[in-house]
Amino acid sequence: MPSFRLPPRGDVLAVVFSLAGVTALAWAYLFHLAGTMMPAMAGIHPWDARYFLMMFLMWAVMMVGMMLPAVLPAVLIYQAVAKKAAGEGTAAAPADCFASGYLAMWILFSGLATLLQWGLDRAALLSPAMVANSPALGVGLLMAAGAYQWLPVKNRCLTHCRSPAHFIAGHWRPGGLGAFYNGLSHGAYCLGCCWVLMGLLFVGGVMNLLWIAAITLFILVEKVLPWGDIGGRIMGLAMIAAGGYALL
Fold it and tell me: What's the DSSP call for residue 131?
């Protein structure tokens, strides 16, 4: 893999504003959905192709808004590596190919989340507001998310997410397809880190914007800030304690 150094300020700003713009558009759509479309969607709906597509789009846009901020360090590092490689005559793709691969993994997850929502709805375990109406399900999701914070697989995936330079060093591939694969691989580790946390959306409400923002902030802190991994474990204990209190 080519070596890298911090990209020029102009490149950094271009990446930051690009990701911020896409994230802002995703959140604008979620606000629109919550304010105008959710009242019409509330209630009992047949899961036909149109409704399934609507739910899938909701999940996909939600994942973009939630997960794109946390990938910023990895995109900046990839951009620096790609620019260095291009200067040395090695084929390299722009950073948006890397980001596209990352988002593709989360869009695939959105399809699975939509199927899970359909299954829970068929089992009468979700309210019209897409919240778990079974106390056992809600407590189970909360305690599972807390316990997962302490599992070795969580720690391995989080280590990759918190060390994007080491990740790119071990997965570097040249060209556009290589960049997309790098992003897809990074997204897979990110998915392994966060997929259980997404189950909490069924606890606080799939379209509860404050709840979505809280989970987004938690993921961002855990992946980016110093001691975020330790804070994640502490929050895991808090989730387990909250689940135990709810059982009592």
Answer: -
